[in-house]
Amino acid sequence: MRFNISEVPPAADFEVIERKGTGHPDSLSDGLAEALSVAYSNYTREEFGAVLHHNFDKVGLLGGRSEVDFGSGRMTSPIRVLVNGRASHRFGDREIPVEELIVETTRQFLGERLPKIDPTQDLTFLWNLSSGSSPGQVDASTDKESYRRHWFSPRDLSDLRELQHLVCNDTSIGTAYAPYSPLEEFVLAVERELHENNDLPWLGTDIKVLAVRNGLTVDITTCLPQIADEVPDLDTYLANIATARRLITELAERLLPGRDITLHTNTRDNPAIPELYLTATGSSIESGDEGLVGRGNRANGLIATARPYTMEGVAGKNPVYHTGKIYTVAAQRIADALAAEHGTAFQVWVVGQAGRELSDPWEVTVAHEGPVDPNLVEVMVKSELADITEITEDLLAARVRLY
């Protein structure tokens, strides 16, 4: 591992921070992809002793159709679940019930995230699964057989090379930073506190928060869906908006003291028509919107474009050896540990090289804002990477934030 460390100036006095809530179509796709990976991984490990090869990171959701009015809402066409990806369908002479696992997991996941839908009636599945290996297998006449020949159809555990030699499957980057800025903490808190507030039964889960800070001036836009069954008339809808604005303003006063706050809510609403963010399910996935893995929040739950950033969509990727996924989680753990130890801000990049030992990245770069002990930083980085297989266990137990 090549280790680099450098000091950087403090962050600019400007931020643009976005959060797509748990019911946003992109967040639903991320969450579903990861739920499928966890379900498949745990099933194959329990049945066969190892996590078999799979990637569900190309899963998508295509919007259905709905009808809403004050006091009522219903789905009129189903949400389409686009099942893209790869998975082992066999282990030895045993078939793996991949489609059954996917259908069961999807219905459970979306039924929990969108409790107003009927998972047996309001979902339909479009299947595009394969079991092809990535490039590397050459079908030449030779005495030696490529390990990729049985990559997605292992005869037994000896065909799973990662059990003996865990290497990066790809050349990818994981990046992270710590700690959150006050504005980032606020954006996360808005969605979390509104979502967890039991006094807001009318509020859907497709909440979006976008905040822009210039110095001490903060402009916030929130998009808040309301569930039609809980909203009998326009006056109630407008009163609900007022309630949410009060809660968000109180949160801003608590978490962003001394800032000049401007709050906008549901800026496309036109009560005179009326055109309102009124939904049957609490999410725009009910009516034409689409979601895809990797288009939403980064693994720390935010879209912070002025921060270290990669396009890696980690949800649904293999939790054992996928370089981008494992190194994204590792980078966040390194950044968190360094920030806690040194009391200053850190940025971390962990760079993997296909075929290299997963516990020995090609490069690790650490940037810091305040004074640090470089030797201690390197020791802490190596310590976090030495336990890299623990990341897999945490992923399979759904203990890691990925979106």
Question: CATH homologous superfamily of the largest domain?
Answer: S-adenosylmethionine synthetase, C-terminal domain
Name of the level-1 CATH class of the largest domain: Alpha Beta
Shape: flat
Q: What is the typical, i.e. mean, pLDDT? A: 95
Keywords:
403 residues; alpha+beta; GMP Synthetase, Chain A, domain 3; 3 domains; 5-stranded mixed β-sheet; 7 helices; 24% strand
Structural commentary:
This protein has 403 residues and is α+β, with helices and mostly antiparallel strands. It has three domains: 2-20 and 171-180 and 295-396, GMP Synthetase, Chain A, domain 3 (2-Layer Sandwich), CATH 3.30.300.280; 25-132, GMP Synthetase, Chain A, domain 3; 185-282, S-adenosylmethionine synthetase, N-terminal domain (GMP Synthetase, Chain A, domain 3). The protein contains seven helices and 20 strands. It has helices at residues 25-48, 98-113, 182-195, 234-255, 323-342, 374-386, 389-396, and strands at residues 2-7, 14-20, 54-55, 60-62, 65-69, 72-77, 79-87, 90-91, 94-95, 123-130, 173-178, 208-214, 217-223, 226-227, 260-265, 278-279, 290-292, 303-304, 346-351, 363-368. The strands form six sheets. It has a five-stranded mixed beta sheet with strand order 15-13-12-2-18, with helices on one face. Strands 3, 4, 7, 10 and 17 form a five-stranded mixed beta sheet that branches. Strands 1-20-19-11 form a four-stranded mixed beta sheet, covered by helices on one side. Helix 1 crosses helix 2 (98-113), helix 3 (182-195) runs antiparallel to helix 4 and helix 5 crosses helix 6. The protein starts with a strand and ends in a 7-residue tail after the last helix.
